[in-house]
Amino acid sequence: MSNENLLKLAREALQLSYSPYSQFRVGAALLTSSGKVFTGCNIENSSFSLTICAERTALFKAVSEGENSFSKILIVSDADDFISPCGACRQVLSDLAGDIEIILTNSRGEMQYKKISDLLPFAFGRADLITKRK
Ligand code: THU
Q: Cβ(73) to ligand 1 under 6 A?
């Protein structure tokens, strides 16, 4: 699956964004190691903190369908500047998807390539619960 195809799928997901409060639409396309794609959009809530981001929607959809190995995730918004995942999504991606590639895009379709370890260095993870427990 090419990054251009992932961008197309993420843009389709963005169209489904439910974001009446922020008016900020986000879409994501997550590629599994076996080549399947799971898409997601942000879904807001009148109780604002219950909002879920596009990245976590895509990842939770995938995990809930038995996926546990991932290759990359592409993120898109309507903004002219590159869209980057929030801190909560970085933590969840790091925990469930490991050091996957994160493709940031802008409204012109340009791409920037990061790893989760670039965006969330010195991450807390599952192993810490065992090695650092007293
Ligand atoms: N949002 C995402 O879906 N992904 C991000 O990486 C950043 C923020 C959403 C959450 C909320 O619905 C809106 O964008 C404004 O923060």
A: no
Orientation angle between helical segments 54-64 and 3-14, nearest 10 degrees: 100
What b/e string do you get for 6-37 counting C-beta neighbours within 10 Å, with b at 16 or more? bbebbbebbeebebeeeeebbbbbbbbeeeeb
Q: Which residues of the chain have pLDDT under 70?
A: none
pLDDT in tens, 60-93: 999 999 999 999 999 999 999 999 999 999 999 9
| CATH classification at residue 120 | 3.40.140.10
What is the rounded distance in angstroms from the CA atom of residue 27 to the CA atom of residue 16? 8
Domain count, the chain: 1
* CB-CB contact of 61 with 36 (8 Å): no
Beta-ladder partners of 38: 30
Out of 19, 25, 42, 73, give the residue to mutate to test ligand 1, the one with the largest number of ligand atoms within 8 Å of its CB. Answer: 42
Q: Which residues are tagged catalytic?
A: 55
Domain encompassing residue 34: 3-133
